[in-house]
Amino acid sequence: MKKTIFSFLFVLTASFLFAQNKFTLSCYVTDASTGETLIGANVYDEASQQGGSTNLYGFYAIVLPEGKHRVVASFIGYESYEYEVELKSNTRLDIELKPISKTLETIEIKADRKKNIEGTQMGTVNMEVEKIKTLPAFLGEVDIIKTIQLLPGVQSGGEGNSGLYVRGGGPDQNLILLDGAVVYNVSHLFGFFSVFNADAVKNIELIKGGIPANYGGRLSSVLDISMNDGNKKEFSGSGGIGLISSRLTLEGPVQKGKSSFIVSGRRTYIDVLLAPLAANNPDFDGTGYFFYDLNAKFNHTFSDKDKVFVSGYFGRDRFSFRDPAADFSINVPWGNATTSARWNHIFGQKLFMNTTGTFSDYDFSFRGEQEQFVFNLFSGVRDLTLKTDLTWYPSPRHNVKFGAGHIYHTFRPNNLEASSGDTDFITGEKEKIHANESHIYILDEYAVNDQLKINAGLRLSNFAHIGPFKRFLKDPNNENITTRETIDIIDYARGDQIQSYLRLEPRLSMRYKLNANSSVKAAVTRNVQFIHLASLSPIALPTDLWLPSTDQIKPQDGYQFNAGYFRDFADNTFNASVEVFYKSMDNLVAYGDGVNPEDIINDNVDNFLVFGDGYAFGAELFINKKIGRTSGWIGYTWSKTERRFEAILDGEYFPARYDRRHDLSIVASHKLNDKWTFGLTWVYGTGDAISLAESWYLLPQEGVFAFEYGDRNSQRMRAFHRFDASATLYVSPNKFKKDPSTGEEIEVPRKWETNWNFSIYNAYNRANPYILYYDIFADPGNEQANIKVKQLSLFPILPSVTWNFKF
Questions:
Q1: Sheet strands (E) in 516-608
Q2: CA distances for 114 relative to 111, 455, 567, angstroms
Q3: Phi and psi (nearest 5°) for 763?
Q4: 10-residue block means of pLDDT along the chain (807 residues)?
Q5: Considering only CA atoms, which of 209, 190, 216 is closest in space to residue 124?
Q6: Cα distance between residue 512 and residue 117, in whole Å
Q7: Could you tell me which residues are beta bridge partners of residue 544?
């Protein structure tokens, strides 16, 4: 079957390659003021209206008949570009778009031309960083992940959680990329902030449904984030000072017009603010928290066909606590490190290649000390990746992508070290699990005619769990996971293949235009995920463990079916969509009931897991306004998601904790004038599903309460809703000074551009639930007891202010 499909695609596209009197027009589209490439800029032939969008590197190519053509390029926030070109041979045309001046901001902008109805991809949203910066910020920190959580089909795991739950999927089912490198943990401050510094980010694309074949390894979504390349024209800087953190970005040319750099850093100073308290109160001595990020990137253009990019990210959180009276202390550091090296090359005019090598590392540790007893718990995952992606533009109606890649995984599940004085406790060998993951893929986005466009692709993936590895075999006659004894041990040598999985993932999406302003789309995809996240907590925390597929754990397997109606209004001022989806998920993992971290010591983590499946379905409404003084969106989701595990509730389905029937977001940004821009967000969500005791009784002899629970996640927290507001004051970029020659007042530009952002989080002080707990009052002597369920809320109304600058 695979050979037949490949042959069909080759014959289909080859016929266009040899057509006579047709030539290729290729181009890079860049920002005229900085030299930054523009991702997703529209390039099309005005007469035929044929064209498309630039890729992640600002490149696009189109095949047109010989003769004169008027080429139009456009992008939101930039003046459109029109150029008349006469094609007599393959031609290269590099385009620079000028940012729109403030005097032109009210003029209609026909950018992002018909993307909502033209493309085949469903559930895809591109976020503009500058728009995100005008929205309310939590404690002055602009947060990309929290803005994405405002989109339909995307839920947070609750207040204080930066995990993404997309269309019923878990936080592990999202492929999150930063310049092509996988980011495994996106949280700072235990989920209150994300690791992405908006000052260093150029493009954000979220794909929730109809994931194309060039992406793989996750079931639910792709979040592809690209860093800024750096200003090729002149040295510049930007930054901000907020209540809990400050940031600084520097960028500029290395060789003007050919190479540039960018360095961006961010650090909190909660530890600095707490230092005076600790100095006056010994109970706080040694207690603190901080996080920091560092992004860096360098790029160089060697020729009009070759570019090289090298980028990196390093971030760290460190939480510490000390109780001098009890001689007790803990130290909890965790963080990510990524590196990407990429080479772009253009073969001829029709074939674009991007070869990428990446390094990703995530690690977490927990060190505790009390008197002479010391223990250290640590885990993590590390990837080395090499992949090549090629894009071929054989004709105006075809856009072919194909490529291959390989990942070498090293997983470090729960490892524990413990000692007391000079005595080291036996906690088993430090476990590492190794695996190889490879893929090849091909897809063709083919415009059958002006109404029908199809994106068909295949992805072939292989995953192999390899040695060295020590397998602890358990007593099959004992069904209790926590008490099963080890009956044998198998030692696998380095390089031994323990288990392999080969999977074929077909992807198909299509679009049919009803008229010039509307279309319907449908997609069906199979997605396979070879890695898993095991959690002992109901919310995403750094302590969650990443695990590969093994001889005990099968790959997650999911099918997603999508259909939708898409429409543009008021000459593309508004666009809207209604989408429905159904998703099945097999081979999900969870810890068995009663499992604790210490049970896993000197054992295999997968011996303590249970396996199941799940499903999710729902409908999404999205109304978006991207241009004009007022912009924003309304997103609404109705959905249902359930899970089933044979070892839980006798195999009956139960609601996932983040099953949320209703989810509504209203987001708006309004530019009043050149000085003031206002932003607001309002969110509403059905309360999370939880398990609470239905009855309880006192055991007099033991002096404790016994609780009787109902079905898992059969009850709900209170509904969640919150209103945030912001106002940004822009200091005039010009100032008046006397002309030394004439003495007249003249207006000149300032060296620095500044603005003040004022935000109010939870403006009407809603006490949203974070945790429910039992408050117990008991008087055994009088045989009286009173138990109440109480709610813990995190944040009351929180104002913040941030000063931002640019030079």
A1: 518-529, 531-534, 545-548, 556-569, 574-591
A2: 8, 18, 9
A3: -60, -35
A4: 47 46 88 90 85 89 88 87 87 88 46 72 86 83 88 78 84 94 86 86 92 95 95 93 91 94 91 65 68 95 94 91 76 92 92 96 86 80 97 90 97 77 67 94 94 96 95 84 84 93 97 93 96 71 80 95 93 90 94 72 84 95 90 94 86 88 94 92 90 70 67 83 93 78 76 90 88 68 67 84 92
A5: 209
A6: 9
A7: none
DSSP for residue 675: S
DSSP code string of 615-627: EEEEEEEEEEE-S
Q: Which of 585, 536, 525 is nearest to 558 (CA)?
A: 585
Q: Which two tokens stand for residue 201?
A: 């980010």
Cα 312 to its chain centre, rounded Å, is: 17
Q: How many residues does the chain have?
A: 807
Q: Residue 115 contacts by C-beta under 8 Å, 6 or more apart in sequence?
A: 40, 42, 53
Q: What is the pTM of this model?
A: 0.89
CA diameter of the chain = 100
Check if the beta carbon of residue 348 is closer than 8 Å to that of residue 304.
no
Distance CA 714, CA 248 (A): 48
Report which of 563, 618, 570, 594 is spatially closest to residue 484, judged by C-alpha positions.
594
Nearest to 307 by CA among 25, 30, 89, 90: 30
What does the angle CA 700 – CA 702 – CA 707 come to, to the nearest 5 degrees?
80
What type of residue sits at position 617? Answer: F
CB neighbours of residue 399 within 10 Å: 24
Among 126, 132, 158, 160, which Cα is nearest to 144's?
132
